[in-house]
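As a warm-up, study this chain.
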Amino acid sequence: MIQVNVRKAAAVGVAAALLLTGCGRDGDASESGQAAGLSDGPAKGTLTVWAQAAEAEALPELLKEFEAANPDVEVEVTALPWDAAHNKYQTAIAGGSAPDIAHMGTTWMGDFAYAFDAAPKEIDTDAFFPGSVQSTEVDGEKYGVPWYVDTRMVYYRTDLAEKAGYKEFPETWEDFKALAKALQDKAGAEYGVGLPAGGADAFQSMLLFPWSNGAELMNEDNTEWTFDTPEMVEALEYYQSFFDEGLADENAATDAGAAEAAFVNGSTPMLFAGPSMIGQLEAVGGKEFAEKYAVATVPAKKSSTSFSGGGNLVVFKDTDNRDAAWKLVQWLTEQETQVKWNRATGDLPSAAEAWDAPELADDPKLAEFGTQLKDTNSPPAVASWTKVSAAADTELEQIVKAGKDPAEAMKALQATADSLGTGD
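Now compare it with the structure written out below.
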């Protein structure tokens, strides 16, 4: 029987804002480094699952099908709000009361990996988008499975772009900036594009520009930070120029619904957002508004690389029912289940083959998200990222609002990041 224990009713839509790292697990890995496998036959026993927000609300209904196929399983789902979940997991791990399975924000993986069980060999990671798999990896080991994915794309007003002389969306940095200016000069927009000017996770939100310029946040083995590089500085100079030239508003309203309203009324006809923005724009502009905008992959310099977010499923290594826990995770990430999950929640499937389903393949906007997901990156899964990210937010705000030289800002951020290390 599926039971739901709601600890707090609020469903806070902060899904794309999380990331982490941790130590290697001990005990269950084989000599080859591969985690122990699973038994044959159906899952059995009791399982506890903690999940956040809308996913926690929709999960019990979906799990009825798993329970029907595994009649000896009982699953209890506990709902947590995103804004309290990190502390809840931290407290539960310390107190030895963690659930069997948890819904992890991709940026939390590094913080808690020491408490996770390594993914067994039955989990085929080749079935998922590479960027989403990367978010599960800590010190070369996979400590979870991508459940659903999220990425940023450019939303733009096609009607106003055409008025500005653009029938096709530009692909390069240079042409993207030219479109932003044309939207002001020829289409009557107050600002060409909405960009984060500071505040929590602002730096993380603009990483698609450095990544598309070949920059990385750390070296290949995640032992050293790499902020003070020509690629990073050049990307931040480009980003700063939008504010210096009046193409983006450094004092744009950040309250709920403000970006959507500015997009719908045409005052800021371009923004970067994830797939949930589709529903939010419909709520503001109505269903007919869908004909006035499209989505496009992020503008390219050396690549067109966006942010890989979403949610992962993890199993805690202290679980009393490892076999059933991983069988449930495996079922939740199968292609057929992922399509049903998309129907129920709108979450984008992490399994690439699930994108062949008509609901996704025949929707031009969602199909574009599938294209973008082939080129994504994510912050490194190290425990110090949350502190480094906060310091980066401060530097970005000084670049945008105080005119700080990006080169000096990145030298300062490099020094801060070096002093924090990886947090291991």
